[in-house]
Amino acid sequence: MSSAFPEIYLVRHGETEWSRSGRHTGRSDIPLTDVGEAAARKLAERLSGPSFAAVWSSPSARARKTCALAGFGSGAVNREDLAEWDYGAYEGITTKEILAGRPGWQLFRDGCPDGETPADVGARADAVVEALRQAAAPILIFSSSHFLRVLAARWLGLPPEGGAHFVLDTASISVLGFEHDLTEPVIRRWNQR
Predict the structure, then answer these.
(1) Which of 7, 15, 84, 91 is catalytic?
(2) 158-175 pLDDT, tens per residue?
C-alpha cells in the first residue's frame, strides 16, 4: 500500500487514566498509564519503515511522551494547533455524565460550553492541512483523538462535524495521503493497532 505521494502518519497518544475511563481530556495534562507507555514503546517498531521529513506533536504531555517513547522525541516540533479539543466546562467529564444533564448532546455538532465549537477545531485543523500541503512531504503527527478525527475530516474536505464518523483507539496509527494525484486526498489506513 505504498504511494508515490506524501503520506501523513497520525498517531493518537497512548492510554491515560482519563482515556481509559472515557473522561474528556482536552487541556488537562494527564500522564500515560503503564499500559499507555508500553504501547507507545511498541510504536517505534510499527513506525520503523517509513522516513519522515518532519515530526509534529501536540503540546500535551501525553502526546509528547508518546512521541518520545516511540523514538521521535528529539526531532519533534510542538505545534499549538495540534492540541486536543478544548472541552471547557466538560473537561474531565464522561459523555454519559454530560448526556444526563444535556440529553441529545453531540460533541461534533454542539461543541462545549466555555470551550471550542466544531468550527473552532476545524479552523485549527485547516491550518494544519495547509501546512501539510505546503510541506508536500511525509510527516508524522502525534496528537489526541477528537482533534485527529477533525483533521481527517478536513483533509478530505468534509466539515469538522464529519470527524464524528472516525473512531481512534489509543496508540493507533492512521495514514492520510492521496490517490491519483495531489488533488485527491484520501485516508489510506485508519485506526491500526
Answers:
(1) 84
(2) 999 999 999 999 999 999
Kindly report, residue by residue over 132-145, the tens digit of the pLDDT: 999 999 999 999 99
At residue 45's C-alpha, the angle toward residues 43 and 48, to 5°, is 105
- Give the CA distances from residue 35 to residues 13, 15, 32, 63, 190, in Å, rounded to whole numbers and listed in that order: 12, 7, 8, 15, 21
Active site residue 97: no
Cα three-residue angle 67-149-66, rounded to 5 degrees: 10
Catalytic, out of 7, 13, 15, 116: 13
Q: Reduce the DSSP state of residue 110 to 3 states and report it.
A: helix
Q: Which triple of cell numbers denotes residue 100? A: 444526563
Q: Answer whether 113's CB lies under 8 Å from 88's CB.
A: yes
13 a catalytic residue:
yes
